[in-house]
Amino acid sequence: MRPSPRRLLNILVPVKRAVDYSVKIRVNPQQTGIDTNVKHSMNPFDEIAVEEAVRLREKHKESIKSIRAVTIGPSKSLDTLRTALALGADSAIHVQIPDTAPSPEPLAVAKTLRSIIQKKNAEASGEGDKIDLVILGKQAIDDDLGVTGQMLAGLMGWSQATFASKLEVDEGKQEVLVTREIDGGGEEIRCKLPLVVTTDLRLNEPRYASLPNIMKAKKKPIEKLTPEDVGVDFTPQLETVKVSEPPTRVGGGKVANVDELIAKLKDAGLA
Prior knowledge:
Strand order of the largest sheet: 9-8-7-10-6-1-4-5-11
Distance between the termini: 82 Å
Number of helices: 7
Keywords: Electron transport, Mitochondrion, Transport
Pfam families: ETF
Helix content: 25-40%
Family: Belongs to the ETF beta-subunit/FixA family.
Number of domains: 1
CATH class: Alpha Beta
Radius of gyration: 23 Å
Protein name: Probable electron transfer flavoprotein subunit beta
CATH topology: Rossmann fold
CATH architecture: 3-Layer(aba) Sandwich
Main location: mitochondrion
């Protein structure tokens, strides 16, 4: 009896261009959001996702067929895709929106990813060409919403494993064993493919892109799409009324005894 052919995995890694983690955040003069005229880079959690996809391929060379990065953003987001390609992704997709457009909301992002997956899987010539594993950061550091992965899994009807701190692919059973962060420890779950995984900080330490790989990334293919191509309306459903700086913290003071403390609290209207 012949053994069943090995199923090849194709990984999709969504990445986002965000304000660099080292930048001190300031509110813009209009108080409509933060000042974005600062240094940007790939969202750190997405960087971890790219690294994990590359590590999986290094470990399972015969099983991982391709790694494709995807981003939704303005023209400058192309730099983020180039970074993903330099880190090890094979190709990329850029869903370009106007430079002045607000950052897409999680539901619109999830719907876009669903559209891309369905389109690519419909065009696939066989099971080995279909996208069956999505790895993305658990949240973006600009909005901290952390719901895109869960929404995508719900829209696709796929398995999901959030806040992953360890991934192990079982090639024979076509399953992925995921250790995920929970309060007070870790939880192991076994998921059938296709699967959506969101990455936690402890999953890995991303590598630096070498100069030769940066040069190679310039020759890797990037497919450009428009919102019309994916059939998604990016009009915001939420309105930000006002963004303001937190109140300035004032220094504390010392008291000699409890009676003096109570007196000060009463003077401040707190007791």
